[in-house]
Write a structure and sequence with these properties.
By secondary structure, this protein is mainly α. It contains 7 helices and no strands. α1 crosses α2 and α4 runs parallel beside α7.
Length: about 150
């Protein structure tokens, strides 16, 4: 009777170890592949992506989106409640239209459904006290870039 590959694996402990590590590597590879940076379609950007520095979306966009979400999650009774909001809104406002569009799309895809509000609604519903100038400017700019 001819031995098959399955019979070899069944009787060889080193083959079991090799299969185990192959499985771990496969899971690691698939997990890494699914966590790849998101691509953006430059045709849908206001300036066709011309004002996005090379590698900016991969390096900084995710952090800026998380910073915005964290700042918008700060409650009014916290001591430094306006500071982080003003800083991150100012940072977003100073970027190019292409960059703001990438950030807005990423924010909406990452937190919009989870929180139940879009980026514009999240910015507009913030209680900024006397510091609402940057909030109004950013909300107008997001609306001008066709965010709802």
């Amino acid at each position: 009777m001819k031995k098959t590959a399955f019979d070899f694996v069944k009787s060889n402990p080193i083959a079991w170890i090799a299969l185990f590590f192959a499985g771990v590597f496969g899971i690691y590879y698939l997990g890494r592949k699914s966590n790849a940076t998101q691509e953006y379609d430059v045709r849908n950007l206001p300036n066709s992506g011309q004002t996005v520095p090379v590698g900016w979306a991969e390096r900084e966009a995710s952090g800026l989106v998380d910073d915005m979400h964290n700042a918008l999650s700060i409650f009014w009774y916290e001591i430094k409640w306006t500071g982080p909001k003003i800083l991150v809104m100012t940072r977003w406002y100073t970027l190019t239209d292409d960059q703001v569009t990438i950030l807005g799309n990423l924010y909406n895809s990452r937190y919009g459904e989870k929180d139940g509000v879009s980026i514009v609604e999240a910015v507009e519903k913030q209680s900024m006290g006397f510091s609402d100038d940057i909030q109004n400017k950013l909300a107008k700019r997001l609306r001008a870039l066709n965010f709802k």
